[in-house]
């Protein structure tokens, strides 16, 4: 990370001039704070930025779904209007027929005065059929009118929701940018010695108090995981997901991105599993909430490691105690130790798939 930190520090002065949403000003770094404290503060800022990114991503998913719903309703409304025009044309035709065949005599008198009563009866049967057809057409027309009105109201509500989500997404985008600016301000205030020390400490993993979460038990025992080389074999889909994720190493982190040129953390994991043939939720929080949990001492390549109590970061386990991840703004997709951040737990997208035969 040292190169990343140095690059961010050099560009922070320029980035700070960008027009961003207001954010609480980051306190100037205290030169007397320990390197561990600086790293903890940086991780907190990154975590806040990633939380804002995950919220943005979730809204983006909802917005795409709403856009599809608006398009569906617009198409259905267009078809309903076409059917309504056809029904009105039919109703007009029948009205003209009724007018042209109208008479001052009742059907009873027409039958009495007819030269051929049987012909009159047959003609009356046809008239009755026309009357029933008229009634059916009027009924269909009324139903079509109601259906069109219902669709118009639903399309209006869907459009209003889409516009609301668009505005919500804009505010969340500004929040992400503001939090990233806070990271840049903190980095810009560090001395070269502090930058180097923070980078070296990060390579060793999370600071002591953050390395483990509170829940005890073997599922929290990272030493019992694949770090000792006793990984479970992956499924065929898991192997394809891992291969895809590893092929992205070196590509930049970008919030909200799902490739192919850049990724955020959950964009990488969701796209890798999509490429493998299994669709999973878009955000790290949804991945944690919706995918089956697995103990950390039973990991296999392809499993997703979720970090921090709020499930704001995710990486893909590749075996031997390593994960591939899109770590943070300013960094690139890379391999990292599984325990480089505080682990919340693991989930398995392909829990129903058998391990691939060796």
Description of the structure:
The chain has 358 residues and is α+β, with helices and mostly antiparallel strands. The chain folds into two domains: 1-17 and 30-204; 207-347, Alpha-Beta Complex (endopeptidase fold (from Nostoc punctiforme)), CATH 3.90.1720. Helix content is 58%, strand content 7%. It has nine helices and six strands. It has helices spanning 2-15, 35-100, 107-113, 117-188, 192-203, 208-211, 236-247, 265-276, 284-290, and strands spanning 293-294, 304-307, 313-319, 322-325, 334-337, 343-347. Strands 1-6-2-3-4-5 form a six-stranded antiparallel sheet. Strand 4 (322-325) and strand 5 (334-337) form a beta hairpin. Helix 2 (35-100) packs antiparallel against helix 4 (117-188). The longest helix is centred in the middle third of the chain and has 72 residues, at 117-188.
Q: Short description, anyone?
A:
Helices cover 58% and strands 7% of the residues. It is α+β, with helices and mostly antiparallel strands and 358 residues long. A hairpin with an 8-residue loop joins strand 4 and strand 5.
Name the descriptors.
single chain, 358 residues, alpha+beta, endopeptidase fold (from Nostoc punctiforme), 2 domains, 6-stranded antiparallel β-sheet, 9 helices, 6 strands, 7% strand, elongated
């Amino acid at each position: 990370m040292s190169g990343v930190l140095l690059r961010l520090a050099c560009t922070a002065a320029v980035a700070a001039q960008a027009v961003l949403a207001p954010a609480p000003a980051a306190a100037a770094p205290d030169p007397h704070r320990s390197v561990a404290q600086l790293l903890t503060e940086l991780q907190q800022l990154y975590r806040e930025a990633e939380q804002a990114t995950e919220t943005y991503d979730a809204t983006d998913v909802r917005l795409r779904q709403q856009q599809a719903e608006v398009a569906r309703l617009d198409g259905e409304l267009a078809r309903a209007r076409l059917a309504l025009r056809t029904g009105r044309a039919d109703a007009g035709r029948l009205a003209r027929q009724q007018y042209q065949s109208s008479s001052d005599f009742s059907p009873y008198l027409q039958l009495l005065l007819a030269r051929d009563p049987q012909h009159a009866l047959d003609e009356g049967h046809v008239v009755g059929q026309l009357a029933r057809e008229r009634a059916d057409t009027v009924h269909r027309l009324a139903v079509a009118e109601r259906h069109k009105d219902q669709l118009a109201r639903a399309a209006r509500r869907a459009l209003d929701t889409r516009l609301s989500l668009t505005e919500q997404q804009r505010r969340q985008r500004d929040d992400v940018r503001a939090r990233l600016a806070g990271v840049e301000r903190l980095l810009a205030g560090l001395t070269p010695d502090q930058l180097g020390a923070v980078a070296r400490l990060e390579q060793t993993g999370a600071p002591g108090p953050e390395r483990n979460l509170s829940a005890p038990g073997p599922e929290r025992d990272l030493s019992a995981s694949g770090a000792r080389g006793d990984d479970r074999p992956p499924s065929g889909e898991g192997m394809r997901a891992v291969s895809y994720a590893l092929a992205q190493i070196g590509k930049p982190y970008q919030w909200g991105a799902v490739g192919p040129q850049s990724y955020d953390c959950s964009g990488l994991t969701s796209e890798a599993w999509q490429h493998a043939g299994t669709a999973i939720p878009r955000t790290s929080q949804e991945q944690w909430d919706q995918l089956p949990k697995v103990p950390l001492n039973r990991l296999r390549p392809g499993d997703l490691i979720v970090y921090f109590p709020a499930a704001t970061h995710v990486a893909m386990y590749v075996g031997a105690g390593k994960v591939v991840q899109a770590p943070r703004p300013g960094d690139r997709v890379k391999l990292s130790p599984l325990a480089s951040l505080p682990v919340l737990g693991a989930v398995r997208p392909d829990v129903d798939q058998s391990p691939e035969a060796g």
